Amino acid sequence: MAFTTVNPTTGKVEATFDQHTPAEVEALVERAARTFSTYRHTSFAERAGWMRAAADLYDAEQPDIARVLTTEMGKTFSAAKAEVAKCALCMRWYADHAEGYLADEVVESGAGRSFIRFEPLGPVLAVMPWNFPLWQVIRFAAPALMAGNVGLLKHASNVPQSALLIEDVFRRAGFPDGAFATLLVPSGDVAGLIADDRIVAVTLTGSEAAGRSVGEAAGKALKKCVLELGGSDPFVILASADVERAAQMAATARVLNNGQSCIAAKRFVVVDAVADRFIPKFIDAMAGLRVGDPFDTATDVGPLVSEAQRAEIASQVDDARKLGAVVACGGEVPDGVGWFYPPTVLTGVTPGMRAYEEELFGPVAIVEPVADIDEAIAVANRTTFGLGSSVWATDPEEQRRCIEEIEAGMVFVNAMVVSTPELPFGGIKRSGYGRELSHLGIREFCNAKSVWVA
Ligand code: NAP
Q: Considering only CA atoms, which residue is closest to atom 8 of ligand 1?
């Protein structure tokens, strides 16, 4: 199998790489295991030095790296540059905080002295998606490497240039050979890697289907597993909301990354009291977004990642239309080159329609008017997912109820959902389990060793 970058804006093949042979994979896994035996004893200061050097390379080479991202998966060039900058920030965050996050925790007990000590586990396999080709990997790799683990990356098949670039930056930053390596292998090889005794844990960011296979393989091998899966995040606008601001942010939150983000707002739940003000503003904002060449600074929304992804979102919209939903804007596949799809708003979407039941991984929003806050919370929770949620309310009681009653890994009030190194990131229900980022993320791949000294 060859790994190919196809430019979503032009449909042209940009680069092709051969799959690693079984012998090459064996050598890379063996090198990771060997490297871990010494790397685990490096000091936080040494690792932080390499991590900061990697962050400096991301800053220095930001436009070149961003160009690779935009060419491989179609995000706007400005979004790609922001992603590179965010990776540098995350690397510095863990360079600064890892030692504190993993410091011994003294515990009062019946012992003379007792504490929890955090030790690295070993080579961790990361199976990652294409939508944030750098960020998804760095938010795993920065904490994992700072903790003293080593990383093996199986990236999405359509972003091999990003995958190799990440490995190259870590190497040039000074990390020992084998601290981080990219495996160019198909997803069919993942279960075999998880079963390998030298690999101690696995993390996957991706779809529910991939989550099931990776979770199953990890279960069989009795290995630690973190799953960051899909989302159908609600964006809830309540009676006390600043409606102007909510409408503006709603469009931004939906089309983030050309609509292909796990934490993009996907369902807009608005109470009747403000629906007449919110809905037309939101439709105008979505209809007014500029779709086009992701390298053009005037573009808001670039192409979808692939022809298949566009066909999927178009069929979800067509299904809703056929079953009686109203397409308030967008909803038609444009002619021409590139896998573009217009920002689309659907109303009248009801249970049984695919758009209601499935994740919408493209710039398509569904608007659901509700009577009051009780119904808003019920609708927000009526999903198999539980990743993020965004709530718009100025009234403290409305805020409190949403914070306490929405079933999600994250609740953002008067803000769109974002990921940031300070706060844990992850979901509940079918959005997966485990956490990335913050002190919780770095501890996922550590042995929390209880020490009792009598
Ligand atoms: P995907 O098809 O699940 O792919 C993600 C990764 O898993 C790729 O490396 C893929 O490899 C691999 N993979 C696919 N099927 C597999 C299997 N059966 N066993 C082992 N590995 C497998 O997802 P995607 O379409 O690239 O990404 C979009 C999905 O990711 C969406 O559902 C989105 O919500 C989710 N996501 C979640 C988060 C989060 O933090 N919760 C963040 C971003 C995206 P190949 O490319 O070789 O198939």
A: 156
Residue of minimum CA distance from atom 26 in ligand 1: 129
Predicted local distance difference test score (pLDDT) of residue 114: 98
Using a 6 Å cutoff on CB, does residue 157 contact ligand 1?
Answer: yes
- Mean pLDDT, range 408-418, rounded to an integer: 98
pLDDT digits (tens, 9 = 90+) for 29-47: 999 999 999 999 999 999 9
Interatomic CA distance for residues 318 and 314, integer angstroms: 6
Q: What amino acid is encoded at 34 in this protein?
A: R
DSSP-based three-state secondary structure for 398: helix
φ/ψ (deg, to 5) at 453: -115, 115
CA of 253 to the centre of ligand 1 (A): 21
Q: What residue has token string 């690397």?
A: 91
Give catalytic residue positions. Answer: 228, 262
Report the separation in Å between the CA atom of 67 and the middle of ligand 1, taken as the mean of its atom positions: 22
For the cut 90, the answer to whether the pLDDT of residue 1 exceeds it is: no
Top-level CATH class of 2-229+431-453? Answer: alpha beta
Quote the pTM value: 0.97
Strands 201-205 and 224-228: parallel
The three-state secondary structure class of 267 is: strand
CATH topology for 233-421? Aldehyde Dehydrogenase; Chain A, domain 2 (3.40.309)
Q: How far is the centre of ligand 1, averaged over its atoms, from the C-alpha of 374 (Å)? A: 34
